[in-house]
Amino acid sequence: MEKHHFLKMACIISIFAFFAWFVSCAVNPVTGKKELMLVSQSQEIQWGEQGDKDILRTYGSYNDKNLSAYLDSLGQKLVSVSHRSQLKFYFRVLDTPVVNAFAIPGGYVYLTRGILAYLNNEAELAAVMGHEIGHVAARHSAKQYSKAQVAQLGLGLASAFSEDFRKYAGLAQFGAGLLFLKFSRDDERQADALGVAYASKAGYNALEMADFFVTLDRLNPSSETGGLPDWFSTHPNSKNRIKVVRKIALEWQQKLGKRRWKIDRSAYLQKLNGLVYGQDPRQGFVEKGVFYHPQLQFYFPIPQNWKLTNTPSQVQMVSPKKDAAIIFTLANSKTPAAAAEKYIGDTKGKVISSDAMRLYGYPAYRVVVDFVSDDTNTRMMAFFIQKAQQVYSFYGMTTLALYNRYQKVFESTMYHFNKMKNPLRLNVKPDRIRIRKVTRTATVRKALLLLGVPAGELIKTALLNGRSLGDTIQANTLLKIVVKK
């Protein structure tokens, strides 16, 4: 027993000695302090390359070369004054109305067209981009991953020596993953400070960052959906955040001693002229309980009261009680039968039934599969349909006990997949932002009415411009309005 105890202690001590050595070699690029870091820069870059592919495949890239080039030019200017100027950065615009910006390891920074719509000048944009560059510069994602690995390592040691710990290891590891999923408030505060610093060093008035946070506070919670969390879901807020940002911005302005700071409102707004606003119906829209996809020319009904989330890679439908779901996506196969065979082979579930059929003239194949284990008791209906050269797949899933209740619901959606023919739906257009000039000094309310904004859209349009309806604006001021499809 004593020998066994000695070996356990020696193992623990050697592992912690390794970490003590490792920490001594890891220096944060921003603080210059030693910290626990289990991820090398080359690993960060590798993660970024793979993550970038997944993000673009899931959320889609906004197709505007001029806008992309503009953001890249500004981003590279900010990178040049950052703490990791030697790292290659990439700046992407995601085709979603959700208001958010985020970064992943390896120098990949994403801004949604939703957040671009609510920014009102280049200084705000620079500060937001600087904030995301700051997350990468300070290696926040890598640090969070390292903490999670240590939590799991400690659990692994306990599991090696205790049956009780081993019993609950899976649950605790899952909890550790959730705990470190988001950036901490300290990380967000540091990214705010870095965003202000980088924007200021690049010559921008970083006080504008605080003004944008005011707009975000008024916007929250956002009503837009698109399968991506909004800003407040990924950037924990604090009551004094705006006050602190203003303080840091003034300190940098005093430190750098410039007389003039760039805001560049007109130049930025002109870049937004024609930007798609809100959901783009060409990539899918819901009307009277039916999902239509004009670009791919198909439609199918949605179960009543189910929540639908549409992304470029899939459509998700979830029941009101969240006890059943249907996922629609592309199948990477040439025929429905091949897709069904691949699905059965990949999932290794127990096949309850499988049959070929034709649906509105389209070849189709249906498979029902059970997944039963100690902690899983699920039945799934998989339905594969060939339209032209593409094979589409539906996956309806629920518990085995509830399957009889939801079987008809699954079938009513899957069996009514069909081709779009109505030209009015096929030719729908998205709403777009247009830039208009105010001809005379007036309140925002009056100016927007003169520009033709409907009374019911006044508050929303004022917020889009970072204004209140009672604010006074001068003649020749540029404003954003939304032109309906």
Structural key phrases:
3 domains, 485 residues, four-stranded antiparallel sheet, 18 helices, alpha+beta
Explain the overall architecture.
With 485 residues, the chain is an alpha+beta fold. It folds into 3 domains: 1-280, no CATH class; 285-426, Protein Transport Mog1p, Chain A, CATH 3.40.1000.10; 431-483. It has 18 helices and 19 strands. It has helices at 2-25, 41-59, 65-79, 113-118, 122-137, 140-161, 163-167, 169-179, 185-201, 207-219, 231-234, 241-256, 265-272, 336-347, 403-414, 423-426, 444-450, 458-464, and strands at residues 90-94, 101-104, 108-112, 276-277, 285-287, 290-293, 298-301, 307-310, 314-318, 324-331, 350-359, 362-372, 377-387, 390-399, 418-419, 431-437, 442-443, 472-473, 478-483. The strands form 5 sheets. It has a 7-stranded antiparallel beta sheet with strand order 8-9-10-14-13-12-11, with helices on both faces. A 4-stranded antiparallel beta sheet has the order 5-6-7-15. The termini are far apart. The model is unreliable at 1-24 and 148-181 (pLDDT under 50).
Number of helices: 18
Strand order of the largest sheet: 8-9-10-14-13-12-11
**Which geometry do the CA atoms define?**
globular
Gyration radius (Cα, Å) is 26 Å
Entry summary:
The chain has 485 residues and is of the alpha+beta class. The chain contains 18 helices and 19 strands. 45% of the residues lie in helices and 22% in strands.
SSE order and pairing:
Layout: H1 2-25, H2 41-59, H3 65-79, E1 90-94, E2 101-104, E3 108-112, H4 113-118, H5 122-137, H6 140-161, H7 163-167, H8 169-179, H9 185-201, H10 207-219, H11 231-234, H12 241-256, H13 265-272, E4 276-277, E5 285-287, E6 290-293, E7 298-301, E8 307-310, E9 314-318, E10 324-331, H14 336-347, E11 350-359, E12 362-372, E13 377-387, E14 390-399, H15 403-414, E15 418-419, H16 423-426, E16 431-437, E17 442-443, H17 444-450, H18 458-464, E18 472-473, E19 478-483
